[in-house]
Amino acid sequence: MSHQPVVIIGSGLAGYAVARELRKLNTEIPIIMLSADHGGFYSKPMLSNALATGKTPASILTSDAALMSSQLKITIRPFTRVKTIDQSGSSVLLENGESLSYSHLVLAVGADPIRLPLSGDAVEEVLSVNDLDDYRRFREALKDKKEIAILGAGLIGCEFANDLAIAGYQVHVIDISAHPLGRLLPEEAGKYLQDKLAAAGIRFHLKSKVQHIERVGSRYRLIFEKGQIIEADFVLSAVGLRPRTQLAETAGIYVNHGVVTNRYLQTENTNIFALGDCAEVEGKVLPFVMPISHAARALAATVSGTPTPVHYPPMPVFVKTPACPIVVSPPDPIVIGEWQIDANEDGVKALFQDMAGSLHGFALLGAATKEKNAITPQLLPILA
Ligand code: FAD
Any stretches that span the bilayer, and where are they (predicted)? Predict the structure, then answer.
């Protein structure tokens, strides 16, 4: 094996999962992790239920970069942004002008929050939370505030809404869809969730589009496309993420929705790999924790000399809305089939079956979440 290091760009769950898996297989291989942020380790999913669980930004950080570096025996360079990748020279150029060679390069650069095209003098003050630094700003901004508006009723918007409601804030959620979790749940399940969150005090403004946000004294005024107006002390945007593909794209690496890889997590360049929120693996962008674990194990084996394709089993996601526990495994949108729904006041069990009766996805809400372990093995793997 070459003496050049494996260079990992990114210190999120994906970057650290690869470093850990590589270390398990090879204690000698030099590993350098470059991170645009502080480089410490934390579990990002904790950000959207930290108020309810009594966590602070400081207690969410599990280990700082220095501790991770000594535990994993890797070099970590925090606040070190990679500017460009030189494919032919197998090196990366840092923002400080330094160049660094690699034997293998791992892109674990995550995703950027999508910003809605809004007008108004307060648009720049709307915050998104996609990392611990954002979360620190969010918690700071919440001080002395009472009424919060959240743009987006997807997974992250609903989780933050429930967390803020538990902590005693008045919460508005605005979304263009007809029910919360519009992309993950069939209508009946979405309405059930909406009722439970409404009972927890959350006010929904659905089939609604915010167009303009302006400051009014210490508050914000949100004007909807159809003229409705609401006011809030703070506005959080949670309208989705877009894989960070720019670094790969400017280096001439093929990108589609994400950085395109095969099942070996390999881009067109056999020494450059991608995983996590930035990656599109065999056509799938899956911005969740479980795919990262599977991808990191396969990638580490490949980099250590045993080419190993990634397999994705069914990977249901728990939605952290205590007012309505949910576990969901959404069907691939290309599958033709329909939802079979069994609903009562204790919960909803929704199964998505194709024409032959094979199960392709499910949504379990309330008491039905107990059936997760029995139903999951009936699902087809996501990547066999
Ligand atoms: P990131 O954590 O975004 O890491 C990207 C890293 O790349 C960062 O360190 C960044 O600084 C670095 N970087 C970027 N560009 C450069 C550059 N040019 N040079 C150097 N460094 C660079 N998933 C679940 O499965 N279950 C959940 O319950 C769940 N809850 C969530 C709650 C919230 C609030 C959020 C935001 C996400 C949640 N997710 C959940 C999704 C999950 O957390 C992500 O899929 C995962 O953390 C992504 O990890 P990553 O390492 O790919 O990206």
Answer: none
Ligand 1 centroid vs 227 CA: distance in angstroms? Answer: 36
Q: Is the CB of 276 under 6 A from ligand 1?
A: yes
Domain housing 198: 115-237
374 in the same domain as 265: no
The CA-CA-CA angle for residues 185, 191, 192, to 5°, reads 90
Residue 102 covered by a domain: yes
pLDDT at 3: 80
* pTM for this predicted structure: 0.97
CATH number of the domain within which 47 lies:
3.50.50.60
pLDDT in tens, 198-256: 999 999 999 999 999 999 999 999 999 999 999 999 999 999 999 999 999 999 999 99
| Same domain flag for 122 and 228 | yes
Tell me the C-alpha to C-alpha distance, in Å, between residue 337 and each of 74, 93, 372: 48, 48, 21
Same domain for 288 and 339, yes or no, is no
Domain count, the chain: 3
Pair 186, 350: CB distance under 8 Å: yes
Distance 68 CA to ligand 1 centre (A): 17
Ligand 1 midpoint to CA 171 (Å): 25
Selection from 37, 24, 31 nearest residue 8 by Cα: 31
Q: Within 74-154, where are the H helices?
A: 132-142
